[in-house]
From TrEMBL:
GO terms for molecular function: catalytic activity. PANTHER family: GLUTAMYL-TRNA(GLN) AMIDOTRANSFERASE SUBUNIT A, MITOCHONDRIAL, TRANSAMIDASE. Transmembrane segments: none annotated. It holds the Pfam family Amidase. This is Amidase. Gene3D superfamilies: Amidase signature (AS) domain (3.90.1300.10). It comes from Ornithinibacillus halophilus.
Length: 492
């Protein structure tokens, strides 16, 4: 049968397969053909699992639907898990991660893994080891990161859904840059095991990127309790898929801002995305108020960077156990090495003080949501950057080589470099870290194209445990003219 593979989202393909209009093998072949035609230009997929036409698929809501997983934290037994780094080039996963186990139970057919920046540390996907991933809307630009490979693959029509995770915006940033729907669930909602109880102290959560709201909702419905998880999300007894299909009948109170929480610039296009969306919501009967969240944005940024440094240092130590030797400056990218040195210079008091502010901010946001159902911001402060645009300058490269070679992380920390690095690292993406530290669910909505034809997103944050409310709103907005049709991008 000849059918328009790219016309369907994941649930649409699954319905065709259930009705025996197409076979899982036919759908998989179409996905692999799309990958073969497009991946050379996009570099979204860095490891293919092969055709495997006779694989045994579970009987579930996504039976036969092609899916890609992210090349970090989403291990598949017997396949590489490099995390974007040459130091793990030879590492083969010994078992499936719990996330992969659970998505396999939905019946998906996993056909490969997607590109990530080294150790998923950046908001662009340009690892030295695998090379940059390019944005399907314009291949001179980044698809964002760290789930940039997943976002590019979905936006290009290779697969309808792809695995992603989000420790500081890594679902929402690439979702925004590629014109996709991206939901970061509440802390503790998605599986993290079997060997991990938390990722990034609970800041990082796994889920998917998708073209449709309903695919994201349907996958969220499938996650089961993971006994390894150190956190427990507030229970939800309903169906997220049903929530995404349920019209929003009551008027909600919504706060919004277009001001950067760290006092940096916000591009006019990103502001326009928010303003057009809140005007639409107001026309739909919702009560809109311009108001910033009651948290200290700079403390959030510094708390996030403290986590960032410590987790990189811990990652490098764990890799030493895996490879049986010390990790050296030459094993990883220079920026990774510097972050690791800074992590080793963080003391226990600083780290625990930083974690304490996560809880303070979470309480402040809980109180905020007593009055406001949603908090809306731009997803990012700027549209996508060009490939290579954010590379270190020659001066920065020389400085990194000098400091890295001498191991001067403690000295560097005393110079105020941390505050400078926080501003530089987050000035383009200052809005997303809040929900990671507070544990709240947050989504990016594809609501705007710039004059250059590049997508930017609108972020919506809700109270912990209220993914249902987010999905209900997303389902309503998906039916409006503002919602971007990702199939209109040049590479689709």
């Amino acid at each position: 049968m000849v059918f328009e593979y790219k016309k369907y989202d994941g649930l649409g393909l699954a319905e065709l397969i259930r009705n025996k209009e197409v076979t899982p093998k036919e759908v998989r072949v179409m996905a692999l053909q799309e990958m073969e035609q497009k991946n050379g230009e996009l570099n979204a997929v860095i490891h293919q699992f092969g055709k495997q036409p006779d694989e045994q698929l579970a009987n579930g809501i996504f039976t036969g639907v092609p899916m890609l997983t992210k090349n970090i934290s989403q291990e598949s037994k017997g396949h590489p898990m490099t995390s974007g780094s040459k130091v793990l080039a030879d590492y083969i996963a010994k078992e499936d991660s719990e996330f992969v186990r659970q998505v396999k139970r939905t019946g998906v057919s996993i056909i490969g893994q997607t590109n990530v920046p080294e150790f998923a540390l950046l908001g662009v996907t340009e690892p030295v080891h695998n090379g940059p991933t390019r944005n399907p809307w314009n291949t001179e630009y980044t698809p964002g990161g760290s789930s940039g490979g997943s976002a590019a693959a979905v936006a290009a029509g290779i697969v309808p859904i792809a695995g992603a995770n989000d420790g500081g915006g890594s679902i929402r940033i690439p979702g925004a840059f590629c014109g996709l729907f991206g939901l970061k669930p509440t802390r503790g909602r998605a599986p993290v095991g079997p060997d991990r109880g938390r990722v990034w102290q609970g800041a990082s959560v796994d889920h998917i990127l998708s073209r449709s709201v309903r695919d994201s909702a349907a996958m969220l419905d499938q996650y089961q309790h993971d006994r390894a998880n150190a956190f427990m999300a507030p229970p939800f007894d309903g169906s997220y898929l049903e929530a995404s299909r349920t019209p929003m009948k009551k008027s909600l109170k919504i706060a919004f801002t277009t001001t950067s929480p760290i006092g940096t610039e916000v591009d006019a296009e990103c502001k326009d995305a928010v303003m057009n969306t809140v005007k639409l919501l107001e026309s739909l009967g919702h009560n809109i108020v311009e108001k910033e969240a009651p948290v200290d944005g700079k403390r959030i940024a510094n708390s996030y960077m403290m986590l960032y440094f410590a987790e990189v240092a811990t990652t490098l130590s764990a890799i030493e156990d895996m490879i049986g030797r010390k990790v050296t400056f030459k094993d990883v990218e220079p920026t990774t090495w510097i972050l690791g040195l800074l992590g080793k210079a963080v003391n226990a008091e600083e780290f625990l003080t930083s974690l304490k502010y996560w809880d303070e901010a979470a309480i402040q946001m809980e109180n905020f949501h007593d009055e406001y159902d949603f908090y809306i911001t731009p997803t990012t402060a700027f549209p996508p950057s060009k490939i290579g645009e954010l590379d270190p300058t020659q001066f920065e490269k020389r400085l990194i080589r000098t400091i890295g070679g001498l191991g001067l992380g403690g000295t560097l920390k005393k110079t105020g470099f941390v505050d400078q690095l926080a501003n530089k690292s987050l000035e383009r993406t200052p809005f997303t870290q809040l929900a990671n530290l507070t544990g709240q669910p947050a989504m990016t909505l594809p609501m705007h194209l710039t004059k250059d034809g590049l997508p930017v997103g609108v972020q919506v944050i809700a109270r912990r445990g209220r993914e249902d409310l987010l999905l209900q709103l997303a389902g309503q907005l998906e039916e409006t003219d503002l919602w971007i049709d990702v199939t209109k991008n040049p590479t689709y």
